[in-house]
Amino acid sequence: MAIELAQVYTDFAGLGALKAKARKDRESALDEVARQFESLFTQMMLRSMRDASFGGGLGEGRNTRFYREMYDQQLAVEMSRQRGLGLAEVIKRQLGGKVSAGEQGRDLAAYRAKPVVTMPAAIADPNAAMAPVPSATSQVPDVLDGTPEGFVTALRPAAEKAARRLGLPAEALLAQAALETGWGRHVILRADGSSSHNLFGIKADGRWQGDRVTVTTLEYKDGVALKTRADFRAYDSWEESFQDYVRFVQENPRYAEALRNTADSGRYFEALQHAGYATDPAYARKIRRILSSEPLRNAALETSGGAKG
Questions:
Q1: 219 is known as an active-site residue
Q2: What domains are defined for the chain?
Q3: Which of 46, 92, 95, 270 could bond to 34 as cystine, CB 3.0-4.6 Å?
């Protein structure tokens, strides 16, 4: 008789029964262990999907996130109780369970040596299969890996060129781009799934004659975040995004005060915010926090060979 999995994720009563069953019927116990591992994997997958989103809606807070996590955990348990994701059999195999009928006749050692999961590139990185392949001479990846180190390594050369034109340190522009894109994880995509390369959230108004992409974004009005549809500029490369940012700031009279304060990155971003560059009332503070953060400092040191900038 098989052991029933917990009906709810907070039910741990079956653990003792599972241990007892393992002493008497190892093969049956492996089935249940594999399904529980699958449930844990499903919870991790759901959490990663939530973390990859642009954020919650209006009124979302700590309590909302708490109950959503409870829902996801219960959903993972229920999925594993039903047909699951098909991972339980693979996990059982790795734990030393018996080979299923479909695998009879194969060499057992070779069978167990097979990879548990082979993840296609399109699943490991959803943008990888859709984004244009960089040219053979290009050293800058078209899709960033989402880590501070990879972000800084890929973008530092373009950031340094742009920063010199503004009189800012390269790290200041990298911090602003990191805030706008979540270290490159949330760069706006074109309709075909390729990258817009828009690192600074610059919108496409009537003066913009280049490519554009329309997406849902958050705007702050009277301190309240509201979702709205807006057109954003799209570029052919990361460097083009940096250079357009320089032109955008230098050619707009309302950012003159910011350009007079480039010797102090903090004051520059304060002036940029006050001039209306972003509607988020905490925009400058968030950039300063990233600029002084350990991930950016460590990434900057690694990409500059250990020398302080």
A1: yes
A2: 14-118 (no CATH), 148-303 (1.10.530.10)
A3: 92
**Alpha carbon 251 to chain centroid, angstroms:** 33
Active site residue 244: yes
Of 74, 96, 68, the closest CA to residue 5 belongs to 74
**Measuring CA to CA, how many Å separate 132 from each of 140, 222, 247?**
12, 40, 26
Of 205, 219, 231, 302, the active-site residue reads: 219
Place of tokens 């742009």: 162
Instruction: Dump pLDDT digits (tens) for 35-63.
Output: 776 777 777 776 766 666 555 555 565 66
Number of Cβ within 10 Å of residue 298's Cβ equals 13
Average pLDDT score, the chain: 75
Say which residue, 14 or 197, is predicted with more confidence: 197
Over residues 90-107, the pLDDT tens digits come to 666 666 655 444 444 445
pLDDT of residue 18: 55
- Cα–Cα dist 113/252, whole Å: 62
Q: Which of 38, 142, 171, 244 is catalytic?
A: 244
Find the mean pLDDT for residues 79-91.
61
Tell me the per-residue pLDDT of 270-279, one tens digit each, with 9 for 90 and over: 999 999 999 8
Higher pLDDT, residue 255 or 75? 255
Residues 6+ apart with CB under 8 A from 134: 140, 141, 142
